[in-house]
């Protein structure tokens, strides 16, 4: 009973300490998302996140053997859903990735590569609360096999080749305006003179059916 009392008091003091640390950081550094998190804040956040991932999940090994095919699936999934924040190369050097707080990290580096397969899987399935990182899992008990392809791709980031990056550029989602621009440039480079208005004009103007963006917009 006494022991339990001490445990509760210890826990309350821990919560108060973390709370006052966060409050000090907010008062001192403001609430702008433009700032870069202090090293201490980042270390505390990483540690808390590690504690929040169950031990048995952390130890899980990928049930999907890495092959050229599974890697290709991870790569195209990444280009379609993740690159908008993380960049095709995983450096996080994108307009959104740079503007988030905390920023999208350079995932080629040790801090990410040291995470276990299970930790990467858990993060991708569930997202990271209070950050820009969304959860992508369908909520099933065993997670999605696509998530394992993504884990394999994250592991591959430090060795990504120029050919792979080029291929991914074709898989990145594009707006209608970007597609029209591309078409215009292509027509111009081929010396075709005026671009094809049916392609360049927005579908509303031509009465054509709305074209979905390139790539699969469905998160699965
Ligand atoms: C809207 C922006 C956004 C999108 C889209 C996004 N992420 Fe993230 N992701 C983030 C941010 C921001 C972080 C850093 C969070 C933090 O520091 O705690 C992050 C962190 C991660 C991490 C942890 C890295 C580390 O070192 O801690 C993994 C793994 C990850 N993302 C994978 C993915 C995958 C796979 C996808 C696509 C299915 C994806 N993310 C899509 C914003 C995004």
Describe the structure.
The chain is mainly alpha-helical. It folds into 2 domains: 35-169, Cytochrome Bc1 Complex, Chain D, domain 2, CATH 1.10.760; 174-220, no CATH class. Helices cover 58% and strands 0% of the residues. The chain has 12 helices and no strands. The protein has helices at 2-29, 39-52, 55-58, 68-86, 95-99, 110-113, 117-126, 145-156, 162-171, 176-189, 197-200, 203-206. Helix 4 crosses helix 8. The longest helix is centred in the N-terminal third of the chain and has 28 residues, at 2-29. Mean pLDDT is 85; it is low at 205-210. Bound molecules: heme C (HEC). Heme C binds at residues 45, 81-82, 84-86, 96, 100, 102, 104-105, 107, 111-112, 120, 123-124, 128, 131-134, 136, 150, 154. Residues 45, 81-82, 84-86, 96, 100, 102, 104-105, 107, 111-112, 120, 123-124, 128, 131-134, 136, 150, 154 line the site of heme C.
């Amino acid at each position: 009973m006494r022991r339990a009392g001490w445990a509760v008091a210890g826990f309350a003091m821990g919560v108060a300490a973390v709370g006052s640390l966060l409050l000090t950081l907010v008062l001192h550094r403001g609430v702008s998302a433009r700032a870069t998190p202090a090293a201490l804040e980042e270390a505390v956040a990483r540690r808390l996140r590690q504690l929040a991932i169950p031990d048995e999940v952390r130890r899980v090994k990928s049930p999907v053997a890495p092959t050229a095919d599974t890697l290709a699936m991870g790569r195209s999934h990444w280009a379609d859903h993740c690159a908008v924040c993380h960049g095709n190369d995983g450096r996080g050097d994108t307009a959104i990735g740079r503007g988030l707080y905390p920023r999208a990290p350079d995932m080629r580096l040790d801090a990410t590569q040291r995470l276990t397969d299970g930790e990467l899987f858990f993060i991708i399935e569930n997202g990271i609360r209070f950050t820009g990182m969304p959860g992508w899992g369908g909520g099933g008990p065993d997670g999605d096999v696509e998530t394992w392809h993504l884990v394999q791709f994250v592991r591959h980031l430090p060795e990504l080749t120029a050919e792979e990056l080029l291929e991914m550029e074709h898989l990145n989602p594009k707006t209608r305006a970007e597609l029209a621009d591309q078409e215009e440039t292509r027509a111009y480079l081929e010396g075709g003179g005026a671009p094809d208005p049916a392609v360049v004009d927005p579908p509303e103007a031509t009465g054509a059916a709305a074209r979905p963006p390139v790539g699969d917009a469905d998160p699965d």
